[in-house]
Amino acid sequence: MKKTFILDTNVLLYDADCLLSFKDNNIIIPLIVLEELDDHKRRPDEVGKNARKSVRTLDRLREKGSLSEGIDLENGGTLTILGSEQITCPFPSDLDRSSVDNVILAMTKCLQETREEKVVLVTKDINVRVKCDALGINCEDFNKHKIIEKSEGLYTGVRRVDAPQSLIDRIYAEREIDAPKDLIQEEIYANEFIVLKDENSGQGSAIVRYIRSTDTIRLIPEIKSSWGLVPRNKEQKFSFDILFDDSIKLITLVGKAGTGKTLLAASAALEQAFSKNSKYKKVVISRPVQAVGKDIGYLPGDIYDKMAPWIAPIRDNLRYLFGDDKDTLDMYIESGKIEIEAITYIRGRSISDAIIIIDEAQNLTTHELKTIITRVGENTKIILTGDVDQIDNTYLDATSNGLSYTVEKFKEYDIAAHVTLLKGERSELASLGAQIL
């Protein structure tokens, strides 16, 4: 039996193509939602773009018939725009009539009581979903981009396997051997790291990376330092291995605060871009402008001045890597060897011969990350870093953000690699704070 889905404004602001995500069911958009879309359409960010695209989509569908009476969608469902005056049920006494959310809730409750089919409100607003539960309204999140059930289930890029000591000895002798499928029972992904431990004593060990193209496991090389930075744990060694592999063009580093994600990415980028025989011409750095209230345009100055508050954490890492030599760092920035770019302006560019670092990528939607990744030109490597449990974007969570989505979608491809960093190295206090707070 078909269902009827009522869409909250935030669903259209999150994904302008959501109308085709409900199979052959019926979709209702409250008229008041169009008012809210109109309020957002002038915004210069992703939300404003989705508002404009949603309105254009509705205008195009209007040519097929009357939206107030309902039109057929290409996936077999129907779309109707419904005004609140068409709802005759009494307004719940506990709700404020002036609230748009409450008007949508009242409409949903009335339709749920008067229609035979199941009526469900779809919203990304957590508080609205809580209200729905209190009012007995069927409600759910819009989970089109939910890639995993829980953040703990995110692909880590590393696994441990017990192996005979003879295999470990062979690895050290030959450096690269055929993948031992008898030991690895589950599916193994491209560029996944395997920690081989002696199955008897547990003392002998080897760290290898799976090379999918040749179906082999390769002992990872010892990278003692990068731009003066020395890896402090095995996950940081894993990170350097993939950061310095020219065949890997997309790298994702995930971990809690203080695990060294950004510092590792920056040091590897500087080492590769500024070496004598470098194949890269510059380092491009950006991060989401996740502000409360004001957009980047309200800040004074040129693009670097506007981005300064947002890239301050990256600048701190760069200054550390340059030995606190501010003049040298500024010289590289002024010459264009280090380029600070707002994500808003990456769309439309084609960035070649560069290493791109996108910090705090967990605050990007899947569409925004698609926009960024598709800007990558020839001979360019892109590094995404972030903490999927520390998200500031209202519409995203640990299971549906662009970084998690990218990690899971690219894990099968030779061109990509991922590492989850576990151990905090910033300071004892920072590590303890990340763990217990």
Walk me through this protein's architecture.
With 437 residues, the protein is an alpha/beta fold. The protein has helices at 9-14, 31-40, 46-62, 100-114, 126-135, 165-174, 234-243, 261-273, 303-307, 312-321, 326-335, 366-373, 402-410, 428-436, and strands spanning 4-7, 26-30, 71-72, 78-82, 119-122, 139-140, 158-163, 176-178, 193-198, 205-211, 216-219, 250-255, 282-286, 338-340, 354-358, 381-386, 416-421. The protein has a 6-stranded mixed β-sheet with strand order 3-4-2-1-5-6. A 6-stranded parallel β-sheet has the order 14-13-15-16-12-17, with helices on both faces. Helix 2 (31-40) crosses helix 3 and helix 4 packs across helix 5 (126-135). Residues 291-295 have low confidence and may be disordered.
- Report, as a whole number of angstroms, the end-to-end distance: 47 Å
**DSSP strand (E) fraction?**
15-25%
Any idea what the radius of gyration is?
25 Å
Strand neighbour order, sheet with most strands: 3-4-2-1-5-6
Mean of residue pLDDT values = 89
Task: Tell me the number of helical segments per DSSP (H or I, 4 or more residues long).
Answer: 14
| Total strands | 17
Report on the biggest sheet.
Answer: 6 strands, mixed
- Low-pLDDT stretches: 291-295
What gross morphology would you assign? Answer: globular
Helix content: 25-40%
Structural class: alpha/beta
What is this structure's SSE topology?
Blueprint: E1 4-7, H1 9-14, E2 26-30, H2 31-40, H3 46-62, E3 71-72, E4 78-82, H4 100-114, E5 119-122, H5 126-135, E6 139-140, E7 158-163, H6 165-174, E8 176-178, E9 193-198, E10 205-211, E11 216-219, H7 234-243, E12 250-255, H8 261-273, E13 282-286, H9 303-307, H10 312-321, H11 326-335, E14 338-340, E15 354-358, H12 366-373, E16 381-386, H13 402-410, E17 416-421, H14 428-436
Parallel strand pairs: 1-2, 1-5, 2-4, 5-6, 7-9, 12-16, 12-17, 13-14, 13-15, 15-16
Antiparallel strand pairs: 3-4, 8-11, 9-10, 10-11
Helix pairs in contact: 2-3, 4-5, 7-8, 8-10, 12-13
